[in-house]
Amino acid sequence: MPASRDPADPHPSPIAAPLLAWHARAGRHDLPWQSDRTPYRVWVSEIMLQQTQVAAVRPYYERFMRRFPTVRALAAAQVDEVLHLWSGLGYYARARNLHRAAGLICAAHDGELPRSFAALADLPGIGRSTAGAILALAHGERFPILDGNVRRVLARYFGVAGAATSSAALARLWELSERCTPHVQLADYTQAIMDLGATVCVRSRPLCGCCPLAAGCFARRTGRQQELPAPRRARSRRVRRAFMVVALKADGSVLLERRPERGVWGGLWCLPQFDTASAARAFVRETIDTRGREPQPLSAFEHAFTHFSLVVSPMLVHCDGTAGLVQQGTSLWYNVRAPARVGLPAPIGALLTRLAQDTMFGVAEAARQPGA
To answer: Is 296 helix (H, G, I), strand (E, B) or coil?
Structure first.
């Protein structure tokens, strides 16, 4: 479909027409959330796509929507089941915010995402850009957006100097996003500019030869594609160490504890974690009936987070069959042979799966290194 524009608009978008023409020809039109573009489906997709690529999101989105096809279904679920379906996707605060927001939508908006921009942006985990994307994609309303892909496209095209997260650069980019958003074909334009940043105007080695905006792009004209937007100042990557207790009963149950809401793996169920091996051993001695058996080290593994790497040293200890010490809501015995639907960090789930598959529960070396 050829790009249209509003004849009454005295300041037409400088990029909408070529973007829309490119999107009609080469954009993505078969994404699962595009087939039935309800506000709820768009909302879930936008949250999942925050800091995560489409290829990783697609299977999670399809499973999530099968289980929670409506806002009410999501609100009625236990947060553990929501986190279980999110396990492996990362940035788990997104899942907790989705669940909290679903409850608020049911309580205050009769189970429908609000049409008011202010009310939508005020919900947990949404904010200005995501609210604009939901209203543009689901309702065709004119709201600018500024996710990471859009920032990169606008910073390069208009030559916006400075890091895209600085207050001055952000203010300028929001101004440009407002100016560039057309008055017609809002859903198509919003999808088009996100697609361009995700597939053509990528962070490294942008495909300028395929870009519909190449002729007017400042970065291409000046050869500054790698400089714009200015990269964040590199941080030295920290390495943290953690010791985790794998307290295993004969029936295949492992002791798990719920992580605090804030911080690493917030709200997920994890093995009891300690800063030192001596603290882990002290926990075993004081809280678990091991009949005198000492914890045995398993293969350490490393898991990369955004700003640091976590090196985990699991310590396996076999428990007496009557081991208890479970506090409702904060700890549980998780049977690795018949797992419950709770949220687990991906590397912890991999370790427990390895234990479940191994028949040599009494040999410390039986649990090999899990996948990250």
So the answer is: strand
SS3 15: coil
Report the CATH fold assignment for 16-222.
Endonuclease III; domain 1 (1.10.340)
At 304, which helix (H) or strand (E)? strand 301-304
Catalytic (active site) residue 46 = yes
Spatial CB neighbours of 179, under 8 Å, sequence gap ≥ 6: 11, 13, 14
Distances (CA, A) of 47 to 37, 53, 75, 244, 253: 15, 12, 16, 31, 34
Domain parsing of the chain, residue ranges: 16-222, 240-366
DSSP 137-149: HHH--------HH
Per-residue model confidence (pLDDT) at position 4: 44
In the prediction, which pLDDT does 10 show? 57
Token representation of residue 135: 């209203």
Average pLDDT over residues 115-129: 97
d(CA 94, CA 98): 6
Q: In angstroms, what CA-CA distances link 199 with 165, 179, 192, 275?
A: 21, 23, 10, 42
CA 84, CA 371: separation in Å to the nearest integer?
Answer: 18
CB 6 within 8 A of CB 183: yes
List pLDDT tens digits, range 85-94: 999 999 999 9
Give the three-state DSSP class for 317.
strand
Q: How far is CA 164 from CA 47, 208, 286, in A?
A: 20, 20, 51
d(CA 300, CA 362): 18
CB 145 within 8 A of CB 194: yes
- Supply the DSSP symbol for 98: H
Beta bridge partners of 301: 312
Q: Which of 46, 257, 286, 365 is catalytic?
A: 46
Q: Which CATH homologous superfamily contains domain 240-366? A: Nucleoside Triphosphate Pyrophosphohydrolase (3.90.79.10)
What are φ and ψ of residue 275, in 5° steps?
-80, -25
Cβ neighbours for 288, distance < 8 A, ≥ 6 positions apart: 245, 247, 255, 317, 319, 323, 325
Q: How confident is the model at residue 327 (pLDDT cuts 50, 70, 90)?
A: low
